[in-house]
Predict the 3D structure of the following.
Amino acid sequence: MARRKGISPVIATVIIVAVTIAVAIAVAFWMTGLIGLFTGAVEKLEIVSATATAQAGGGWQITIVAKNTGTTQTSVDVIFVNGYNATQLSCVQNVNPQPPQVIRPGEQLQFTITINAGACQVSNNPVFTASPGVSIEVKLHTTGGKEYPKLLTLP
């Protein structure tokens, strides 16, 4: 009869302990990453209100109120109107306050943009016409690379 040979109990124990340690390390790294997702700093702006009101002499005043509902401060570095930097549009008379503007967690900030009626140009190239009934997309861009859009119709 042939004798069967297996691994010794000492070697089997060493293999079991090594596999257990490897699995424990893998679980620890996985949990660290999972915890980091839930406890890390989060940038999030919420547009609380957005209104467009007609001005007496023609044109409109757009008012955007943004609230930082994230866990870290953020900074609005550019305001876009229909995809163009608001400060570069010929029809934009005023942006107040001028970006960049820091918003801390829990704080709100109000931006006002004054738009004149008529053709809006960038470097003498017409891009859109501001007139009653036209939809305007206002987008807040942050230094974190996120964009927060709001669509308004000019009254």
